Amino acid sequence: MSVTVRSFNPADPADLVVEAPVPGAFGTAAVVERARAAQPGWFASGAAARSAALGRAADAVAAHAEELAALAVREVGKPLAEARGEVARTEAILRYYAQAPYAPAGAVHEPAAGEGLLLTRRRPHGVAGLVTPWNFPFAIPVWKLAPALAVGNTAVIKPAPEATACALRLAEVLALPAGVLSVVPGGAEEGAALVSAADVVSFTGSTATGQAVIRTATERSVPVQAEMGGLNAAIVLPDADIEQAAAHLAFAIAGYAGQKCTATSRVIAVGGALEPLRAALVKALAAAGADSGPVISAAARDRLAEAVTSAVAGGAELLTGGGRPEGEGWFVEPALLAQVPAGHPLLAEEFFGPVAVLLPAADLDEAIALANATRHNLAASVHTRELDVALAAADRLDAGMIRINAPSSGVDFHLPFGGAKAASYGAREQGQAALDFYTASRTVSLLPAGSTR
């Protein structure tokens, strides 16, 4: 009996977007072997060929932009404006890495003594196994595959089941040579098989799955990076532009229903900022809810609702939202809570939805201590007019990405991406860091014939 993976429209759960066969562990291993057979030829094709292929892929994304955006809206519930923005970013990432094949791949060094030539060269690992999430179904796969391909690896993607149609269509649109890019639909079995066979592994997803990926890859001694989300904090100082800060926070909490690993889930108001921020943020979140979109599944919706209910039962104050709008689809009203009891999961876990906790802090020291009191420090934002305060906060926050007077959920695709503590493992993604991750350094000594050294 054949096994399939099915993906449904979260705004209309009766709409089956795609049903695709899954290959199982054996079939996944076979896909990796085909990619491994194609890799030497892809690398040997040279910088110009790889650059041109990535450039053509960018052109193809641009040509299919509206179709891809519509598919993201339908399959993963992304609001249209955000879907269009993601597709534009996907094109830009491909254009950025299309120049990477021409970048220096090593350096020349002076020998310690005598004649000769010492070289360091970076070379691809082989097959990149990419396990990707559903929330950015185009941008995240591309910011993994583009640097991997640019330096001469081939790639196999195992997308989240909820983004199967997006991954399959993306591969069709990119139209790379046979074996250079493959998609393996499926679930945990296919993901585990890919991690067990690839030569370098990149993962984005939940902490529990990420830890399993790390264990498997490290036991095999293959390079691995894992991005596992964040319990991100925003610090608002009394001197901040409160209305602007509230607008930024509402976007970071409710944008795409909070389903971003860089979304804000803890708002820390310092001193006199508490009351005006509380009023402004309640108003901004009520307005943001109309455009936030659904959460990805009924299970996600129910987990969020239970978290809000249990917090209120424990003494928390629900300032706004938390309900379920009428009609079809897995929608949740963006929620803001205050006085959440210590030890509640909302203060310790990433819920991946439009729910945030408002916390008071007497001063900047207490605010930074609260922000750092988590193992999942991916991103943080600081809202203040004082440059010295902003610099001091940026220097003391544990987060891997710190944004001043901006939402925590913004990402610059050419800069290193990753968090602190348990939010990330291994090398950073994006930019030069990604090119280094997908290659291994080799040292070459060239000595004159007959040398005794």
Structure summary:
The chain has 453 residues and is α/β, with parallel strands linked by helices.
Mean pLDDT: 95
CATH superfamily descriptor of the largest domain: Aldehyde Dehydrogenase, Chain A, domain 1
| Contiguous helical run count | 14
Supply the number of structural domains: 2
Named at the architecture level, the CATH assignment of the largest domain is 3-Layer(aba) Sandwich
Rg over CA atoms:
23 Å
Structural features, described:
Helices cover 40% and strands 23% of the residues. The protein has 453 residues and is α/β, with parallel strands linked by helices. The chain has 2 domains: 4-228 and 423-445, Aldehyde Dehydrogenase, Chain A, domain 1 (3-Layer(aba) Sandwich); 232-404, Aldehyde Dehydrogenase, Chain A, domain 2. The strands form 5 sheets. Strands 12-13-14-11-10-16-17 form a 7-stranded mixed sheet, with helices on both faces. Strand 1 (4-9) and strand 2 form a beta hairpin. Helix 3 runs antiparallel to helix 6 (164-174).
Reconstruct the topology from this structure.
Blueprint: E1 4-9, E2 12-21, H1 24-44, H2 47-63, H3 65-76, H4 80-98, E3 106-109, E4 117-124, E5 127-132, H5 139-150, E6 154-159, H6 164-174, E7 181-183, H7 188-195, E8 200-204, H8 207-219, E9 224-227, E10 232-236, H9 242-254, E11 264-270, H10 274-288, H11 298-313, E12 317-320, E13 335-338, E14 355-361, H12 364-372, E15 376-377, E16 379-383, H13 387-396, E17 401-404, E18 420-421, E19 424-425, H14 431-437, E20 439-446
Parallel strand pairs: 5-6, 5-8, 6-7, 8-9, 10-11, 10-16, 11-14, 13-14, 16-17
Antiparallel strand pairs: 1-2, 3-4, 4-20, 9-19, 12-13, 15-18
Helix pairs in contact: 1-7, 2-4, 3-4, 3-6, 4-5, 9-10
